[in-house]
Amino acid sequence: MTIIYDEELNIDPELLKTMEHAAELCASAEGVNTENCEVSFSIVSPEEIRELNAAYRDKDAVTDVLSFPQYDDLNDIDNEEEIILGDVVINDDAVRSQAEEYGHSYERELVYLFVHSILHLLGYDHMEPEEKAEMRAREEEVMEEIGLVR
After folding, report:
1. Which tens digits make up the pLDDT trace of 41-76?
2. CA neighbours within 13 Å on the CB side: how many for 132?
3. Residue 49 maps to which CATH number?
4. CA pair distance 25, 77, nearest whole angstrom
5. Is residue 115 part of a domain?
6. How many domains does one find in the chain?
7. Where are the beta strands (DSSP E) in 24-136?
8. What is the pTM of this model?
9. Considering the domain boundaries, does residue 125 fall inside one?
10. Which domain holds residue 90?
11. pLDDT of 133-150, one tens digit each?
């Protein structure tokens, strides 16, 4: 799995490795070939994420993370071709405030939101209680597997 990002973000290489590993765990469990798979990743301000949320989701509100999937259906993925899963956009202020609120590190919250977004790119949702339970369970499995538990 390759994460495409603006190098001006100065992401710690170890944190980036953790994010890549987490994304690989998510994608491979869904049958996606992670060898030729990539995702775009951005960290933005509350104002920027609000603008994106308004423009693409018709919701004029700040949020913590947005996901823009490339595929509506994973069956459309050709595992022999280059796979661009989509875009992950995370609100840096939300990462910081949620990490403090939940009593864990910035890194843990960033990776958790990244995992959450990757699962959205893979077709998971949390609109219905059953979907939410399934998605939360998968998030926790991945976070446990990479050693970033609450």
Report:
1. 999 999 999 999 999 999 999 999 999 999 999 889
2. 4
3. 3.40.390.30
4. 17
5. yes
6. 1
7. 37-44, 65-69, 83-91
8. 0.95
9. yes
10. 2-145
11. 999 999 999 999 999 987
